[in-house]
Amino acid sequence: MAVDADFLYELQRFEAELKRKVNSVFQGEQETSETGEGLIFADHRKYVPGDDTDLIDWNLYARTEEHYIKRYEEERNLTTHILLDASGSMEYGDGDENKFDYAAKVGLGYAYLTASENNDFRFSVFTDTFERIDSGRSNEGEVLGLIDTVNETEPEGQADFGRALGEYAGTIGSRSLVVVVSDFIGDPDGIREGIDALADHHLRLVCTLSPDELSLPTTGDTIIEGVERDLERRTYISNRTVQRYQDRLNDHLNGVEEHAASRGAEYVLVNTEDDFFDSFSRAWPSE
Description:
The protein has two domains: 228 residues, von Willebrand factor, type A domain (Rossmann fold, 3-Layer(aba) Sandwich), CATH 3.40.50.410; 45 residues, no CATH class.
């Protein structure tokens, strides 16, 4: 099942509400301490010969009889960094419930709405390291091109969250929105390390799992096939096994969520069985 571009245009139904939510989260984040000729007033300084006379504050001169220059803060675009897990475990699920395709749509939705606000985005896939796959244009055409690239991507290998997210953190120059879309199946220590590396930013973790992973669909004799490693095991799944699996899964996911919260990050769990637009609305930053 490939990602179809039509979902982007359906997102337009939610665009106004989603933009309002994210703008409230990042109000004030698009300013820098650099001064220049911009839109946001910073302070005054005394005029010196050679300064642009258009910047003289004549109202202040009327009160003080001294010439002062208005200084402004330069504005910059808010950059959204999207990291999509392309490890083998993401290739689970059939049709619309395929985890990689579902997660890719979440990431592409972020890119699309970011571009529609004339802000910049960066889009990467990761396993044991990351690979940036956008060209830096941050427009609708770029998102459409990314759909083709994503559809050509074959999830494989194992995710190394600590290494991949840590390396990516070193490429981010200023405080940004970072969105990691993954099933977060991996070594808990590595996941915590990856979260820590990105914790200086507005970090949002979108945990994408299939209904079969959230609740084992079978009992009795079962053949289990590895998705990140080439292995096959025949086993008997009892009701006790199902309960142990559920307990371990809940412990793992709760651990990810709790560590994210401790570092100021937001965590959202989405089920590939759910309507995509409902999931995306929850995955988008809240007020």
